[in-house]
Specification:
Layout: H1 29-42, H2 53-57, E1 59-63, E2 66-69, H3 128-135, E3 147-149, E4 152-153, E5 163-164, E6 171-173, H4 178-181, E7 185-187, H5 194-202, E8 206-208, E9 216-217, E10 235-236, H6 243-246, H7 248-262, E11 273-276, H8 280-289, E12 296-299, E13 310-312, E14 324-328, E15 341-352, E16 355-367, H9 382-385, H10 389-392, E17 411-413, H11 414-423, H12 428-457, E18 466-474, E19 480-487, H13 496-513, H14 520-524, H15 528-531, H16 543-553, H17 572-586, E20 591-595, E21 609-611, H18 612-624, H19 628-640, H20 656-661, E22 675-676, E23 688-690
Parallel strand pairs: 3-6, 7-8, 7-9, 9-10
Antiparallel strand pairs: 1-2, 4-5, 11-14, 12-13, 12-14, 15-16, 15-18, 16-17, 16-20, 18-19, 21-23, 22-23
The protein binds adenosine-5'-diphosphate.
Length: 713
C-alpha cells in the first residue's frame, strides 16, 4: 500500500540502487530512431486521431466534475484520447451546442502546434544524425565526438532511486544492462513532437505501439476517466482538469473567481473579459461605460493559432448567440521598432500536490509582421494586430531570426528581448518577477480542480506532469498581461532559434520530470481502472503522520511561532517529499523553480484548499534556501538511517504536546477551520482544509463547511 507521494520504482527497504554500465548490442538508439522513422512515414504530422463527436455523446456527468463514460474504463489509453486539433485553415472550435457545461473536462482543445510545415517534416526519411540535428538541439556531431554520459542520474540521497538521463545532441547516453533496457519503452502518439522523440532516442528509448508497459507518453490530453488507466510507474504529459486554465472561457471564469475571493489588486493581470452569450448584458453595460474609442477582441473560447479572432469597435459587430470570449483590446501595447509583440513563456508543473512550478528562463518573442496602428481602418489587418506565428508566417515580409542572439526579425529569443530592454535602461528583473507572479497565481486558480480530479482518477502523483505555454503581452507602461495559457504549446521548430530554445527546454524538462525505472511489483499491479474504485490502494499514512498534518492544517497561516515547527520532527512522508523536491531542484537545468520559493508563503492564502505539503515545503524553503547544503545534509542523514522508509533510529514520532511545549503558549491560537477528510474515503494520503477568505466566495468552491469534493468544478 502506498501513498500518493510514494516514489514509484522504489520499494521501501529495497536497498540501494546500483547503476551498472553494460554495453548491450541488442539495444541501440538506432532501434528507436528506425521506429520513429517508420512511424513518421505511416503517420504524417498533424494526422487526426479521430473524431470526438461520438465520444462526446458517450459522456455523462454523474455529478458536477465527475464523469463516466460508456466506454470501458479498462480501455487502452489510446481509446481515451480525444480529438486532435484540426488541420491548418479548418475551424477547430469545440462543438458545444449549448451543452458546454457537460463537456467541462472533456478537454478537447486545439494545441497551438502552429508551425506544422516545419523543416522537421521534411526529415522523415533522413538518417539518425539528421533526425537528431533537425529536431534536436545543436549542429551535427560525429558519433566519435559524442561525450559519454551515464544513463541514470543518482539521487542526492542514499536509498532513493536514480532517474533516467536525457542528453544533448553532443552526448551519448550509455546503455543500461539488458534487463533495464527492456523497460525503456515510450508510448507514441501521432502528435508526439519530433523534438521530444529525438531526445528520447538519445536516451535509448524504444517505441511501443501496442503494449501497455510503457514509461512515458507525450500527446493530447485525455478525457478525465482516461487517467484511470495510467499505471503508477507511467507518466503522461497532462493533468486532468488542466483546461480550467487552458481554455479561454474557463481561464476567464477562474481568474474572475480568484479576483472576487482574493482582491482585484492581486488578480489584475487579465484583460476584462465577457463570455457570450451568458454575459451579454454585462458586456453591453461595460461597452456603454467605456470610451467610444475602446476596441474589443473577439475570440472563440477553445481555439488557438489566432483562428476566429477579430478586433471590433462597433456593437453591431458582436455576434450575440455564438459562444465567444469578448475581451478588452489592449490598444496601447509596448512597441519595438513600431511593432506589437507577445511573449511565449514556458511553464512546467511537476506536481500539483505539493505544488511545484518551474519557469524556463528562455522563451520566444513573437512580433506582428506589420507596424502597429490603432486606427479602426487597420483593425481587419491580422498582420498588425495578431502576433501569432501561424498568422504572420503568411505575410511575405515575415522573417524569423535564425539564432538565439538576433533582435531584428519577427521572432526573438526571450533572452534577446531582455538584452534589448536592458539596453534601454528597463528593469527586466522586475518585469520577470511580475511575469512569475502571474504564472503562480494562474496555476493556483486551477489547483482545486486539478487536485480534486487527480485524487479521483490518478493512482499516483508521479503519473502526471505538464508543460504550459503562457502568452503574455506588455502594455506601453510595460505592465505584463496574460492573454492565454496553452496546453500543448507548440514544440515544432521551423527555425534555428526554435530548435535552440525548445530543444534545450525539452531536454531539461525530461530530466526534471524524473523518470524512474519501475520495479517488478509496480508493473504487475493493475491500474486503478482495472482494480475499480473500491479496491483503489489506500494511502499509507500512519496515524501519527495524520495527526501532524491535521495539526498544521488547522494553524493560522500567519502564525510564525507554530508553522516553522513543522520542520522539527520530520515524518517518513515528509522526508520523501522534501528529498524529492531537493532532487528535482538539482535536476532543473535552465528551469527556475518559482513555487515553492523563499517568498512562496505570500501565495498560500490564494489556495482554496490548504495542503499540508505546501506548508511543509514553504517552511523548508524559508529555512534552507540560503543554505541548501545544510538542508540536503539533514535529509541525507535521515535517508541514510532509513527514516524515509519508516525505519531506523532517526524517525522519532511527532508529538503534539512536546511540540507545544517548545512554543510560547500565548501565541498559539488554533483557528476554527473545518478539517475535511479527503474527498472520498480512498482518495488521499494527507488531509486538507478548505478556506474561505472572502464572504463573496463562490458557492461550491471554497465553502468552508463542505468537503474537498466540493472544491471540484
Ligand atoms: P490564440 O489562442 O488564437 O493564439 P490569443 O488569445 O493568444 O489566441 O490571441 C491571439 C493574438 O491576438 C495574441 O497573440 C495577441 O497578439 C492578440 N491579442 C489577444 N488578446 C489581446 C488583447 N486583449 N489585447 C491586444 N491583443 C490581443
Amino acid at each position: 500500500m502506498r501513498d500518493k507521494h510514494f516514489v514509484p520504482g522504489f520499494t521501501p527497504r529495497s536497498g540501494t540502487y546500483t547503476v551498472k554500465k553494460k554495453q548491450d548490442g541488442r539495444f541501440s538508439r538506432h532501434n528507436m530512431v528506425n521506429e520513429i522513422l517508420s512511424e513518421m512515414a505511416c503517420s504524417p504530422a498533424g494526422a487526426l486521431l479521430g473524431s470526438v463527436t461520438s465520444q462526446i455523446s458517450a459522456i455523462h456527468l454523474t455529478q458536477e466534475g465527475q464523469e463516466t463514460s460508456s466506454s470501458s474504463s479498462a480501455s487502452p489509453l489510446e481509446e481515451f484520447l480525444v480529438v486532435d486539433r484540426q488541420h491548418a485553415g479548418q475551424h477547430c472550435d469545440m462543438q458545444v451546442d449549448g451543452e458546454e457545461e457537460l463537456l467541462d473536462d472533456l478537454e478537447t482543445l486545439c494545441s497551438d502546434d502552429d508551425d506544422s510545415s516545419s523543416i522537421n517534416d521534411t526529415m522523415a526519411s533522413a538518417s539518425v544524425t539528421s533526425l537528431t540535428l533537425h529536431s534536436g538541439i545543436e549542429e551535427s556531431v560525429g558519433e566519435e565526438d559524442l561525450q559519454e554520459r551515464p544513463a541514470l542520474v543518482p539521487s542526492l540521497f542514499p536509498l532513493i532511486p536514480p532517474t533516467l538521463y536525457f542528453g544533448t545532441a553532443e552526448e551519448k547516453v550509455n546503455l543500461l544492462p539488458a534487463e533495464q533496457m527492456k523497460l525503456l519503452k515510450w508510448k507514441m502518439s501521432t502528435i508526439t513532437p519530433k523534438i521530444v522523440k529525438a531526445t528520447l532516442a538519445r536516451s535509448n528509448f524504444k517505441v511501443t505501439q501496442t503494449g501497455d508497459d510503457w514509461l512515458g507518453f507525450w500527446g493530447h490530453c485525455m478525457k478525465t476517466c482516461g487517467f484511470k488507466t495510467v499505471r503508477k510507474y507511467q507518466k503522461v504529459n497532462h493533468y486532468p482538469g488542466i483546461f480550467q486554465i487552458g481554455r479561454k472561457d474557463r481561464l476567464c471564469r477562474n481568474l474572475s473567481r480568484m479576483r472576487a475571493r482574493c482582491g482585484r489588486q492581486e488578480f489584475n493581470f487579465f484583460p476584462r473579459s465577457f463570455i457570450l452569450p451568458q454575459d451579454i448584458k454585462q458586456l453591453r453595460k461595460a461597452w456603454e461605460d467605456s470610451s467610444p474609442r475602446q476596441k474589443w477582441i473577439i475570440k472563440p473560447p477553445a481555439s488557438a493559432r489566432g483562428e476566429g479572432i477579430q478586433v471590433v469597435y462597433k456593437w453591431s459587430q458582436v455576434p450575440r448567440k455564438r459562444a465567444l470570449l469578448v475581451q478588452e483590446y489592449l490598444q496601447k501595447p509596448y512597441l519595438i521598432n513600431g511593432s506589437k509583440f507577445d511573449l511565449r513563456i514556458y511553464v512546467y508543473v511537476t506536481s500539483y500536490d505539493p505544488l511545484r512550478i518551474y519557469i524556463f528562463t528562455d522563451g520566444l518573442v513573437r512580433f506582428a509582421s506589420c507596424k502597429y496602428s490603432s486606427s479602426v481602418k487597420t483593425l481587419h489587418n491580422r498582420f498588425i494586430h495578431l502576433t501569432n506565428f501561424s498568422v504572420n508566417k503568411h505575410n511575405c515580409g515575415y522573417k524569423a531570426n535564425g539564432d538565439s542572439q538576433g533582435c531584428q526579425e519577427h521572432k526573438w529569443a526571450l533572452k534577446a528581448l531582455w538584452r534589448y530592454l536592458g539596453s534601454k535602461g528597463i528593469n527586466t528583473s522586475l518585469l520577470w518577477e511580475k511575469i512569475k507572479d502571474i504564472v503562480i497565481k494562474t496555476i493556483i486558480a486551477s489547483e482545486p480542480y486539478v487536485n480534486s480530479l487527480l485524487k479521483m482518477n490518478v493512482s499516483s502523483n508521479y503519473s502526471c506532469h505538464e508543460l504550459l505555454g503562457f502568452d503574455i503581452i506588455l502594455d506601453e507602461k510595460l505592465k505584463p498581461w496574460l492573454l492565454e495559457v496553452n496546453v500543448s504549446p507548440s514544440l515544432n521548430s521551423s527555425t534555428g532559434l526554435d530548435v535552440s530554445v525548445k530543444g534545450q527546454m525539452v531536454r531539461d524538462l525530461l530530466n526534471l520530470a524524473g523518470f524512474l525505472l519501475p520495479q517488478k511489483e509496480d508493473m504487475a499491479a493493475p491500474s486503478s481502472a482495472h482494480r475499480g474504485n473500491k479496491e483503489k490502494s489506500k494511502p499509507d499514512v500512519s496515524a501519527n503522520e495524520k495527526d501532524k498534518q491535521v495539526f498544521y492544517l488547522t494553524q493560522r497561516s500567519t502564525d510564525q511561532d507554530i508553522l516553522p515547527t513543522v520542520l522539527d520532527v520530520l515524518t517518513p512522508g515528509d522526508i520523501r517529499v522534501l528529498a524529492q523536491s531537493e532532487d528535482e531542484m538539482n535536476r532543473r537545468g535552465q528551469f527556475e523553480r518559482i513555487f515553492p520559493s523563499p517568498v512562496s508563503s505570500r501565495y498560500l492564502r490564494f489556495f482554496e484548499c490548504r495542503r499540508y505539503f505546501n506548508i511543509l515545503l514553504d517552511q523548508w524553503e524559508q529555512k534552507y534556501w540560503a543554505n541548501r547544503t545544510k538542508g540536503i545534509s539533514l535529509l541525507t542523514a535521515l535517508c541514510q538511517s532509513g527514516a524515509h522508509q519508516g525505519t531506523g533510529d532517526l524517525s522519532p514520532m511527532w508529538n503534539k504536546n512536546r511540540m507545544m511545549s517548545t512554543v510560547q503558549p500565548h501565541t498559539h491560537r488554533q483557528e476554527h477551520r473545518q478539517v475535511n477528510c479527503p474527498c472520498d474515503e480512498d482518495s488521499d494520503s494527507h488531509w486538507e482544509v478548505t478556506l474561505d477568505p472572502s464572504p463573496n466566495a463562490s458557492p461550491g468552491l471554497g465553502s468552508s463547511s463542505s468537503s474537498i469534493s466540493c472544491a471540484s468544478p
